[in-house]
Amino acid sequence: MSQIVAASPHVTTKNSTAVIMRDVLIALCPALIAGCVVFGLRALLVVAVTTAAWIFFEWGYEKLCGKPSTICDLSAAVTGVLLALCLPVCALAATEPNAKTIEDTTTYEGDTIRITIDQWCYAFNRTNLRFFVANVYVSDPAQMQTAFAGEQYSKNNAEATSAIAERHNAILAINGDYYNYKDKNGLVIRNGVLYRDAASSRDQLLVMRDGTFIALPRGTYAAGEGQKYIDEGTVQIAPLAYMRGRTLDNAFVILDEAQNTTLSQLKMFLTRMGRNAKFIVTGDITQIDLPRRSDSGLVRAMELLRGIDGIGIVEFDQRDIIRHRLVKHIVKAFEKEQEQTAGKETPATDEAR
């Protein structure tokens, strides 16, 4: 007695594979029609391309292996249709859209910040891609407070950046993906900590402790030397007394709280300026801690250096205050009181101080 072993299925039927595959294709027709109605004829194009590609692949494989052709059983066609139903309609969309338009713009404006949100529409033949672009304008970059995802640079942080920003009371939250984490391109420094240092064709971004941004144009730093810049003191913080005897070439130097320097100290600082250097002096002449206001080197220097070509003086007033809206009124009230007090004082009283 002989036994015949055959592959599954073991249920015999008069229907051939071609008949069964034909019935499957007929059953898929409602889904194909719905796709064309919702997404347009591009859905039909995706089906046609994937089906033709799969039939050609099966024919080529069988031809290469010397096997008899089975493309007439319609199984390849079914596989192509099923693959098409899994692909997005824009799978065959052109790289560049046919048209780019702004459909809607929403604007929010406060005392120190303005935000416009544009709704863009990219038209790819019959397929439209819509996305939103937010433009944030602030009167001072320090307002652009930022937060890193989970306080660390990581591609594994699943928390939404909007949630991170809300948790930190920040305008912008940054995740590792924003810096193209996967291909390790670029220089990333956050609060003096080097997170990535590699060659890149892109402009780089530094996020400072106060939330401000510094953009480094491509090619202005050498890859692999980010930590070296920090360790060697390319960026330095030094007391004013350490400036004596130095010449600062090719440098960008900021002197802060200059209202509390004497005229001789400020002169010493300004004369450290070397070739290709820029010096910035900042201070608030309403917050002088010296015994007499006239001792402030900043006040005297503004009088002496005003009008010299190459030296610019920028003075701020109440309109430039970016803190709470009440701060403007508080400053105005105190200035009015000081003016009234100064008008009552005699020269002898001022000399006595």
Task: Tell me what the structure shows.
- The chain has 9 helices and 11 strands.
- The N and C termini lie far apart (126 Å).
- Helix 6 links the parallel strand 10 and strand 11 (278-281).
- The longest helix is centred in the first third of the chain and has 24 residues, at 42-65.
- The protein has helices at 17-39, 42-65, 75-86, 161-167, 226-231, 263-270, 297-305, 325-344, 347-352; strands at 99-109, 113-124, 127-138, 146-148, 172-174, 187-190, 193-197, 204-207, 213-216, 252-255, 278-281.
- The strands form 4 sheets. Strands 7-6-8-9 form a 4-stranded mixed β-sheet, with no helix packed on it.
How many whole angstroms does the radius of gyration measure? 35 Å
- Note poorly predicted spans: 177-182, 346-353
Q: What's the number of helices?
A: 9
**What string gives the helices and strands in order?**
HHHEEEEHEEEEEHEHEHHH
Sheet with most strands: strand arrangement: 7-6-8-9
Oligomer state equals single chain
Describe the main β-sheet briefly.
4 strands, mixed
Query: Which range best describes the helical content: under 10%, 10-25%, 25-40%, 40-55%, 55-70% or over 70%?
Result: 25-40%
Report the span from N to C terminus.
Answer: 126 Å
Counting helices, strands and paired strands, the structural category is: alpha/beta
Mean pLDDT across residues: 76
Number of strands: 11
Instruction: Tell me the overall shape.
Output: elongated
Strand content: 15-25%
